[in-house]
Each structure stands twice: as structure tokens, then as C-alpha cells.
């Protein structure tokens, strides 16, 4: 079957605007991306025609592939697609299991939470017509839960604050663009007094870092903005490094802003603990085999001035990387909305939320 | 209901500015000029329009359309002239632009008769498609500008200045920046505070022969405190225009180019009183430029590969069938590219789908199209190879462009600046000298087996055989620009050949000039023979026009319009017009006198008082008043001596009364002009009277002062 037959014009008209937004990098905020994709998939499921779950899975995979291709370096759209696929697969497996009246194995933590609800639906299983419409609503419910989870991600993260931050501690954050880190710190202020050092993140996030510092100061948190180059010098005084993430891979490594890598290396020298803050939706079932291919390279104009002709002429390549890959051994704890985990444990959480067969969408 | 309302708001531009951009965004129109009416991309543009030439393996027009779509513009008019059918079918066959979900509504407007941008604009105005402010952009723009900022700037200026007519987008660069046009660089005189453009001056070529601009002081009168004169801007021809732009083109049907004619015309016109503003982005990550010559083609290609225009980069995959991915050092590869193990892909390279690169081949700073076969041990540097080309083993390409479906044999040497057209075949072991262009079909050109080989297919395209000159310009440019080695210099020389050709062609075509589509240059290039011929024509026609008007008692406006039309079509100055008018008037006076219908005095009063008003729109400056007087006296002195004094006296008096001639100028002229004393005797009285009046006045004034 070609993609043309599966992807009807209605679906195309739904995904095209999202795709062009992704392509133009207008959809940047991770949370926005996640929510947009989740809502998009919900719409796709409601407009698409399918008689059995296998077909639906096929459609979602195709849509996922199209979305992925529009911005291959962005990990989150793929995560959301796989999460939705997971929801669909969970439902269908259960139904099959129910038919065979085999009780499902407690294979994952997710199913632990979802099984009891399903028992009431058993009666309807026999009738195929009703089954699809029923499945449709169950899946929609699943996606709605996913959307809730994404939109309330910061609340989940905040729960762990008291255990992690001590009074009068000095924290360093090299990711001032992270919304989660901002909320985390502001919430922490309600329970603890501490000082935050924020790196400037020149050139790409310098405005965001100013905004970040301002926000923290408004909440009466003692905040110091430091140049990126001084992170090693201040590290001896820092109690904890808190980083935001763009994506977390199954091996426990993660993608974060450019400049974070050197900060965590400094932290390693000083044996300073590094906490990575990540919503569950940032967890990806993929392994970072080719690290260079994961990193987005941005506008060269931010690094050098385009009108400086004499300089530009003599420069071979100007590279403005937007992201850094952080290997798992440099991160001590991932703080997610479902709890804190060591980087070595990430693979297990990935297994709880994704199906292995969806790792490859094509 | 709703759409009606929208239209209403759009129709009145003032409302728009105040109500914010939400209303404007509802429906914003853009005009894309797909034809530049230039010949800079010859011979490639002989078979394919410029906007469909591939830039980084994507047709140029896609970049412009991407910008428009990104800007939230929803109606796009593609103005097509040359190769209109190709552009039309491209848009029709494009999945992206043809799909229902596409936010852009693209309409091809074919105007085959257009020979210049001005013609296209007039044609568009006649069709009445444009309803409000619109974006005027050429089909070869590459930019990642934030349109909302630009629109905000435009609306702000519009609210501040009701005469605001046009906002031009300029990009900061440096005078010798590689992306800046070497072909038509221009200096802008701007008001420092408001960014209002006060004067525009194109500087002929970058070779430094002309280094000054002349600005009339008058233009600076209403300027703010500080002026800046900038010669470091890239003019990317993105303009937000208000509706009067179209009507201005309509009124001034001699306007051909957007900048040299229109912008200059508007800025220097005393009548229009419209203002133009420039938007210069301060964000270092914003990029805007135009592919308007091979030189900028080269530099913009490299800029895109070097991610200056991010997020507009190859791995954004603008068109659906692209699948580029980025690798470090700015290397871009599509799916199914086959690279031999020993080949070396160096920095800033882009390779299209299904291309094969052979063993030992080195590629640097180059773009390879789709389905290309590159042999073994080939060296490709700073070159652009378009789709489906085959390059034989051991060839060496440097600063060249290879058109689609070409075949280059083994061990071919291509020297810098050479351009191989579509479907050309070049035999083994050949050497293509610098700046040679080869095309597939050339009826008028000579086949040259020495260059393309026995089994080769193609002809040498020579715009002109002026190689000595072009070489000398090359060296001149090189010495002047110093460090700027690379394709620029060579392409630059290529450009100068081109401009030279234009001149040459004009000389040859002489009279056909206006009708040949490819020589729509500015009017700077006038040739005497042409002038004389046209002068005579104009003289005859003009005289007849004015006489006809007088005889048939047309109203003055009609007569003026006819005369003006004639002036523009013949391309003569106002001096000629005045001369013709005076001759016609005098002719009529003589007719009255000789037929004894009227006495000299009455005849002159009658004719001049009713028809003298014509000079109101022929005489604008002080110098022109003096010119008018000189013409008058010259012509009158030729008349019968019996009455010529009276005629002169009366005519000057009438013109004075009509406020066409000012006292000061008459006196000034009187002082300077000492010829034709005989005729002047009667006029002297008038002058004396004027002088006395003047003195009295000044006395009175001084009296006032004393009090």
C-alpha cells in the first residue's frame, strides 16, 4: 500500500499546516510541539477511516513518518507518535487477550494503571461495528490523558523539590530556555532559600537567559547571570547543576542546549551532581548511534556578522550548533514528572511507554 | 457579510493602518515579478526562465514562494512574460502549491506584451486585481526576513506620514560584499532618524570608475537633521507598496525599471510629493538577497549552504520530493547518493538524489544536482552541476556552471567562468577557456570543433566578440578589488561583457531598440544619430499636434497630453517641447497677421493668453524659464521685422502675467542675453518697468524695514 492510499486528502489538510510550521522552525517550544502533535493525531484518528486497529496503526505510522521527515532533528514529534501508537496497541492487545480470556501479563507499569478500567468494556467486544467506535473513544481518551500529562508536566516535576534542594545551596543552570527548570526553581523557592547561577548561553538564547534571570529575581530568588566561559571557575562553589533537556534517549544520554556539555564536564571534574529535568514526553525509545546527526545546526549569522565581509571571506565553515549531546555518565539523576531516575534506568521507563515495534516508523 | 466588510476595510488604506495588522493579514496580496527583463543569465535563460533555474537544486521561485507563504500572504500574482507557459505548468504541476490545503492562492498573470517591469505593472493595474497595499517582490529573492516586523514598520510609517507610498527592504552588507550586486550597486541617501529614503543613485559597476553621486539640494530641503549616505546595502527588491504605486506607473508610462525610473522618479518629482522608506533589519540572523547575476547566484548558493539563511537551508526540504540531511562542515546529501570509498567530499557541498560520485573524486564548495554521474578522479571546485549531468573521468571543473542533461567527456578542463548550457555534449580531452558559454542550439553562432570536440554537441554562445575589452575590464576589476579573487571577478567580467553587449546591441538596433525585449536598460545610453532622427520626427509631429490643437480649439489638457505622449515615445527633453510649442504659436500668430485677420498685437495677445498656459506644464525650474525666453527670442527674431518687436513684447508680458515667467528670471536673462538687440527694443520698456517696479518694491521694503 502506498502512502497516498492511506493518507487521505482530509488527513493531508490536517497535517500540512503543522508540517510547514515544523519545517520553518516556527514551532520551537518542546511542550508546544508535543501538544500540537498529540492534538493533531487525535484529529487524524477521528477523521480517518479504518475498520481494524491494524489499519489505524498503519495510518498513524505513516503520518508519523511524514511529521518526522519534516524536521528530522526534532525528537519530540516522534515520541508523541510512538506514545499514541503505544496507546492503540495496548488497547488492541488487551481486547485480543480478552477474547482469548487470557488475563494480560503485568508487563508494564502503564498497564498496571489501566487494566481495571477496561473490564467493563468486555461485553461490547464481540460486535465489530461497535468495537471500532468504542476503540475510537478509548483511544481518544488515552490521547486526552497524554495531553493532560504533557500540559501538567511541570507539576509532576515540582513534587520532588524538597528532597533535592537544600537550604542556602548554590545551583547552576546552563539552560535558561527551559520552562521546566524555571518552574522547578520558582516552586523550590516556596520551600527553600538558595542562589542560582545562570549562564548567558550566547548567542542563541541570550535573550531567553535575560528573561529567565528576570523571572527568578521577581520571585526573590538570588540570581547571578554569568558568562558561559566562567562555568569552570564557579563550579567549585556550586552544589548542584540543573539542566533542562530537549530529548532523552533510551541509553540515558540526552540532548540539551549548546554549551551544556562543557558545563557538565566541569561538574564531573568537581564531582558536582548533575540533575536533568525532563518531562516524560521527552523520553525517546531511540538510541543515539550517530551523535552528529542528532544535533541541529542553526543560523551562522548569530556567530559572525554577515556584513563583516573581510572576515567571512576567510572563514571556511561557520557552525552554530544549537544542541549538545550529553552522554549518560555525566548525568546523575533525571527528574521526570513520574519521579527521579538514574540515567541507567531510563531504558526501563522507555519500555513502559513505548512498544519496540514502533521504534522504526518506516 | 464578513468578506464584504473585509473588502471595505482594505479599500481604504487609512483604516487599515489604524486598525492594526489583523485586518491587513486577512488578505494581503503579493506580486511576484518572474521576469527581470534582463539578459544576465543568458544563455541559460534562453530555454528556461530565471525563476525556474535551480538554486541548491530547488527552483528559485520556491524560495520566494516560501517567503510569501511564511509571511501569511494569501494571494499571489505571478507576473509572467518570457517562458510564461513553463512557469504556469510548473505551478500547476506542483503538489505543494496546487493542493487545497495550501494557504497561498497563486495566480499566473501572463502579459506577453510587457517589455519592462513598468509595462507589467501597468498591465496589472489595468486588470484591477490589486485591492490594497501589496508586496512587490521579484521571483528570485532568497530571504528569511520576519515579514511581520516589516509590515509593522510599514504601517507605522504609514500612520506617521500620509504621503508614504513604498517601503523598500534593504539588507546590511559591505560595499564589496560578495552577495551584493556588482552589476547594479546603488547608493541610498537616508534620513537617519526616520529611515526615509531621500535619494537613490545607482552607481555604474563596481570597478570604481564613478565614485561620486550628485544630489540636488532641493531634495534635501525637507530632510531631518542627519543624513546618511549608504553604499553598503543589498537591495533585495522586496517592497511593500500602496495602491498609488500602480497609478504612478500608469501616469508615467516611461517608467521601466523599479529603481532607476520609479524610485528615482518619485523621489525627484516635484509634483508627486510622495515618500519612500527603507526597512533595514537589525537582526544579524536575518538574511535577504537576490539572485540577479551569476556572481550572486554563486554567493547566495554558498550562503545557503553555510546556513546564513537558516532556517531556509537545504535540509529544510522545501519541496516535497527532497530529502536532504545535514552533516558537519556544511555537507548536504540526499537519499540514495552513492559515494565511492576514496572520494573526498569537502566543505559546503550539496549532492542531490541518485547521484554517483566516482573513486578519487574531490568535491568542494559545489552543488551537484539529481541523477548526476561524476566519474573517477574528477576535481570539482566552486561549481554548480545541475540535474542529470554526466562528468567523465579525470575532468577538472573550477568555477563553472553545467546545465541539466549535459555530458562532459573525459579529461576535460573547464576554466573559471565557463558556462555549459542544457543538453550540451563536450568531447574527451577538451579544454574550455575562461568565460566561454556553450549552448545546445545556436543558429547564429559558429560551431567550434576545437573547443567542444569531434563528437561534441553545442555551439559557442557569444553575446559579443569583445574579448579584448572584457579582458581589460577583468584586469581593471582585479586590481581594484584586490583580495576578491574567485568566481566573482570572473563573473564580474562576464557581467561587463554583458553590459557591453547591451550598448553594442543598441547601437546596432538603433531604432528597433524600444521593441527588442532584451535591451530594456535605462535611458543613459543615448546615441547621437538616434537623437537627431528622433528630434526631427518629434519636431514635425509636435508642431502638427499643437497646431491641430489650436485650429480645432482643443482644450489645453488634451493638447498637453498629446504632446507629452509624443515626448515620451520619442524620448526628447522638455526643451524640444517648448521649442515646438513656441514655433506652433508663432506660426499661428503669423498666420493671423499675414491674412490680416488680426493686428500683431491682438493676435499675440489672443494666442499667448489662451495657449500660453501650456508652458505651465513645460516649464518647472528657473533655468527652464530662461531657456523658454531664449527660445522665444530666437524664434521671434526670425519673424518679419515689422512686427516682431511687438510680438516679443506682448508674449513676454502675457507669460509674465500668467505667472509662467518670473520677474527675477526675466531680469536675469536680460542681463545675460545680449543677442538680438534689434528685436528687444520694445521689450526694453517692459524690462525697465519691471526694474522700476522691483526697485520701488525694494524701496518700500527697505522703508518697512526702517520703520
What characteristic shape of chain A results from the CA principal axes?
globular
Helix content of chain B: 40-55%
Give the radius of gyration of chain B: 31 Å
Question: What is the CATH topology classification name of the largest domain in chain B?
Answer: Spore Coat Polysaccharide Biosynthesis Protein SpsA, Chain A
Structural class of chain A: alpha/beta
Structure class of chain B: alpha/beta
Strand content of chain A: 5-15%
Top CATH class of the largest domain in chain B: Alpha Beta
CATH architecture of the largest domain in chain B: Alpha-Beta Complex
Largest sheet of chain A: 7 strands, mixed
Q: Largest protein interface? A: A-B, 32 and 39 residues
CATH architecture of the largest domain in chain A: 3-Layer(aba) Sandwich
Distance between the termini of chain B: 70 Å
Q: How many distinct helices of chain A?
A: 15
Cα-based radius of gyration of chain A, to the nearest Å: 22 Å
Overall number of structural domains of chain A = 2
User: What is the rounded distance between the termini of chain A?
Assistant: 13 Å
Give an account of the 3D structure.
Chain A: One of its GO terms (molecular function) is guanyl-nucleotide exchange factor activity. The complex is a heterodimer of chains A (362) and B (707). Chain A is an alpha/beta fold and 362 residues long. Chain A has two domains: 3-151, Four Helix Bundle (Hemerythrin (Met), subunit A) (Up-down Bundle), CATH 1.20.120.420; 154-358, Translation initiation factor eif-2b, domain 2 (Rossmann fold, 3-Layer(aba) Sandwich), CATH 3.40.50.10470. Chain A has 15 helices and ten strands. In chain A, the strands form two sheets. Chain A has a seven-stranded mixed beta sheet with strand order 3-2-1-4-7-9-10. In chain A, strand 5 (247-248) and strand 6 (254-257) form a beta hairpin. The radius of gyration of chain A is 22 Å and the shape is globular. Residues 117-127 of chain A have low confidence and may be disordered. Chain B has 707 residues and is of the alpha/beta class. Chain B has three domains: 25-294, Spore Coat Polysaccharide Biosynthesis Protein SpsA, Chain A; 331-461, 3 Solenoid (UDP N-Acetylglucosamine Acyltransferase, domain 1), CATH 2.160.10.10; 528-706, Serine Threonine Protein Phosphatase 5, Tetratricopeptide repeat (Alpha Horseshoe), CATH 1.25.40.180. Chain B is 41% helix and 17% strand. Chain B is elongated and about 100 Å long. Chain B starts with a helix and ends with a helix. Mean pLDDT of chain B is 76; it is low at 1-25 and 464-532. Classes of the chains: A alpha/beta (362), B alpha/beta (707).
Amino acid at each position: 500500500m502506498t502512502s497516498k492510499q492511506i493518507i487521505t486528502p482530509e488527513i493531508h489538510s490536517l497535517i500540512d499546516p503543522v508540517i510547514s510550521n515544523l519545517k520553518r522552525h516556527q514551532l520551537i517550544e518542546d511542550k508546544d510541539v508535543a501538544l500540537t502533535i498529540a492534538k493533531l493525531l487525535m484529529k487524524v484518528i477521528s477523521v480517518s477511516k479504518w475498520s481494524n486497529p491494524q489499519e489505524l496503526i498503519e495510518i498513524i505510522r505513516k503520518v508519523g513518518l511524514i511529521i518526522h521527515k519534516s524536521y528530522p532533528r526534532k525528537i519530540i514529534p516522534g515520541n508523541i507518535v510512538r506514545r499514541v501508537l503505544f496507546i492503540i496497541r495496548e488497547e488492541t492487545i488487551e481486547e485480543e487477550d480478552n477474547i482469548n480470556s487470557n488475563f494480560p501479563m503485568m508487563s508494564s507499569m502503564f498497564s498496571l494503571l489501566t487494566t481495571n478500567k477496561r473490564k467493563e468494556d468486555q461485553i461490547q467486544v464481540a460486535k465489530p461495528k461497535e468495537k471500532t467506535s468504542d476503540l475510537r473513544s478509548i483511544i481518544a481518551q488515552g490521547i486526552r490523558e497524554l495531553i493532560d500529562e504533557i500540559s501538567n508536566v511541570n507539576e509532576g516535576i515540582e513534587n520532588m523539590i524538597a528532597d533535592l534542594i537544600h537550604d542556602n545551596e548554590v545551583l547552576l543552570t546552563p539552560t535558561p530556555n527551559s520552562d521546566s527548570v524555571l518552574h522547578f526553581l520558582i516552586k523550590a523557592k516556596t520551600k527553600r532559600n538558595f542562589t542560582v547561577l545562570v549562564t548567558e548561553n550566547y548567542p542563541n538564547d541570550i535573550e531567553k537567559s535575560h528573561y529567565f534571570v528576570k523571572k527568578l529575581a521577581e520571585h526573590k530568588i538570588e540570581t547571578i547571570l554569568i558568562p558561559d566561559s566562567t562555568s569552570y571557575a564557579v563550579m567549585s562553589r556550586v552544589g548542584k547543576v540543573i539542566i533542562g533537556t530537549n530529548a532523552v534517549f533510551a541509553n540515558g544520554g540526552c540532548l540539551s542546549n549548546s554549551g551544556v556539555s562543557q558545563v557538565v564536564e566541569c561538574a564531573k571534574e568537581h564531582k558536582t551532581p548533575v540533575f536533568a529535568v525532563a518531562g516524560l514526553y521527552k523520553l525517546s525509545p531511540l538510541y543515539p548511534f550517530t551523535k552528529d546527526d542528532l544535533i541541529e545546526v542553526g543560523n551562522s549569522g548569530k556567530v559572525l556578522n554577515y556584513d563583516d565581509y573581510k572576515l567571512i571571506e576567510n572563514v571556511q565553515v561557520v557552525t552554530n550548533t544549537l544542541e549538545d549531546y550529553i552522554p549518560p555518565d555525566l548525568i546523575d539523576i533525571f527528574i521526570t514528572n513520574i519521579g527521579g531516575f538514574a540515567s541507567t534506568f531510563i531504558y526501563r521507563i522507555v519500555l513502559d511507554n513505548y512498544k519496540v515495534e514502533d521504534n522504526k516508523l518506516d | 457579510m464578513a468578506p464584504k466588510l473585509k473588502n471595505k476595510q482594505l479599500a481604504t488604506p487609512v483604516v487599515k493602518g489604524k486598525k492594526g495588522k489583523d485586518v491587513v493579514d486577512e488578505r494581503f496580496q503579493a506580486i511576484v515579478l518572474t521576469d527581470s527583463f534582463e539578459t544576465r543569465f543568458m544563455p541559460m535563460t534562453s530555454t528556461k526562465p530565471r525563476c525556474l533555474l535551480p538554486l541548491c537544486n530547488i527552483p528559485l521561485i520556491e524560495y520566494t514562494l516560501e517567503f510569501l507563504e511564511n509571511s501569511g500572504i494569501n494571494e499571489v500574482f505571478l507576473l509572467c512574460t518570457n517562458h510564461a507557459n513553463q512557469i504556469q505548468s510548473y505551478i500547476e504541476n506542483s503538489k505543494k502549491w496546487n493542493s487545497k490545503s495550501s494557504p497561498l492562492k497563486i495566480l499566473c498573470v501572463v502579459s506577453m506584451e510587457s517589455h519592462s517591469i513598468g509595462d507589467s505593472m501597468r498591465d496589472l493595474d489595468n486588470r484591477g486585481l490589486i485591492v490594497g497595499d501589496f508586496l512587490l517582490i521579484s521571483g528570485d529573492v532568497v530571504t528569511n526576513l520576519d515579514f511581520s516586523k516589516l509590515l509593522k514598520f510599514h504601517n507605522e510609517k504609514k500612520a506617521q506620514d500620509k504621503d508614504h507610498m513604498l517601503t523598500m527592504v534593504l539588507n546590511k552588507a559591505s560595499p564589496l560584499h560578495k552577495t551584493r550586486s556588482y552589476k547594479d550597486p546603488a547608493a541610498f541617501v537616508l534620513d537617519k532618524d526616520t529611515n526615509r529614503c531621500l535619494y537613490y543613485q545607482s552607481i555604474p559597476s563596481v570597478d570604481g570608475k564613478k565614485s561620486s553621486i550628485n544630489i540636488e539640494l532641493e531634495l534635501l530641503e525637507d530632510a531631518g537633521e542627519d543624513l546618511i549616505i549608504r553604499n553598503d546595502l543589498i537591495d533585495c527588491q522586496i517592497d511593500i507598496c500602496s495602491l498609488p504605486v500602480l497609478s504612478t506607473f500608469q501616469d508615467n508610462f516611461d517608467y521601466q525599471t523599479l529603481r532607476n525610473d520609479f524610485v528615482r522618479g518619485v523621489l525627484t518629482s516635484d509634483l508627486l510629493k510622495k515618500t519612500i522608506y527603507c526597512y533595514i533589519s537589525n537582526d544579524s540572523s536575518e538574511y535577504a538577497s537576490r539572485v540577479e547575476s551569476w556572481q550572486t547566484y554563486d554567493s547566495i548558493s554558498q550562503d545557503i549552504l553555510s546556513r546564513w539563511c537558516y532556517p531556509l537551508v537545504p535540509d529544510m526540504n522545501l519541496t516535497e520530493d527532497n530529502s536532504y540531511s545535514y552533516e558537519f562542515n556544511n555537507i548536504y546529501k540526499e537519499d540514495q547518493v552513492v559515494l565511492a570509498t576514496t572520494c573526498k567530499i569537502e566543505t559546503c557541498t550539496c549532492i542531490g538524489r541518485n547521484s554517483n560520485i566516482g573513486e578519487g573524486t574531490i568535491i568542494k564548495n559545489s552543488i551537484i544536482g539529481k541523477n548526476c554521474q561524476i566519474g573517477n578522479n574528477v576535481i570539482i571546485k566552486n561549481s554548480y552541476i545541475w540535474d542529470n549531468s554526466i562528468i567523465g573521468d579525470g575532468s577538472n571543473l573550477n568555477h563553472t556552471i553545467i546545465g541539466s542533461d549535459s555530458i562532459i567527456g573525459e579529461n576535460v578542463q573547464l576554466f573559471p567562468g565557463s558556462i555549459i548550457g542544457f543538453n550540451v555534449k563536450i568531447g574527451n580531452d577538451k579544454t574550455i577557456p575562461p568565460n566561454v558559454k556553450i549552448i545546445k542550439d545556436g543558429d547564429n553562432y559558429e560551431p567550434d570543433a576545437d573547443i567542444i570536440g569531434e563528437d561534441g554537441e553545442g555551439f559557442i554562445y557569444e553575446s559579443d566578440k569583445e574579448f579584448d575589452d572584457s579582458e581589460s575590464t577583468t584586469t581593471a576589476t582585479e586590481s581594484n578589488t584586490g583580495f576578491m579573487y574567485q568566481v566573482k571577478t570572473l563573473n564580474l567580467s562576464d557581467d561587463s561583457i554583458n553590459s557591453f553587449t547591451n550598448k553594442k546591441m543598441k547601437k546596432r538596433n538603433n531604432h528597433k531598440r524600444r521593441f527588442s525585449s532584451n535591451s530594456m536598460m535605462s535611458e543613459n545610453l543615448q546615441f547621437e544619430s538616434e537623437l537627431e532622427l528622433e528630434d526631427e520626427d518629434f519636431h514635425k509631429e509636435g508642431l502638427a499636434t499643437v497646431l491641430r490643437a489650436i485650429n480645432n480649439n482643443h482644450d489645453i489638457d488634451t493638447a498637453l497630453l498629446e504632446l507629452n505622449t509624443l515626448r515620451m515615445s520619442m524620448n526628447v527633453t522638455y526643451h524640444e517641447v517648448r521649442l515646438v510649442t513656441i514655433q506652433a504659436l508663432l506660426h499661428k500668430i503669423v498666420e493671423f497677421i499675414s491674412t490680416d485677420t488680426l493686428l500683431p498685437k491682438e493676435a499675440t495677445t489672443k494666442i499667448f493668453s489662451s495657449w500660453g498656459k501650456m508652458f505651465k506644464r513645460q516649464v518647472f525650474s528657473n533655468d527652464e524659464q530662461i531657456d523658454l525666453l531664449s527660445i522665444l527670442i530666437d524664434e521671434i527674431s526670425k519673424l518679419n521685422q515689422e512686427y516682431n518687436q511687438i510680438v516679443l513684447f506682448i508674449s513676454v508680458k502675457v507669460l509674465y502675467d500668467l505667472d509662467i515667467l518670473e520677474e527675477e528670471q526675466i531680469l536675469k536673462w536680460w542681463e545675460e542675453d545680449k543677442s538680438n538687440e534689434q528685436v528687444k527694443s520694445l521689450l526694453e520698456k517692459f524690462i525697465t518697468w519691471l526694474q522700476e517696479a522691483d526697485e520701488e518694491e525694494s524701496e518700500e521694503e527697505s522703508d518697512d524695514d526702517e520703520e
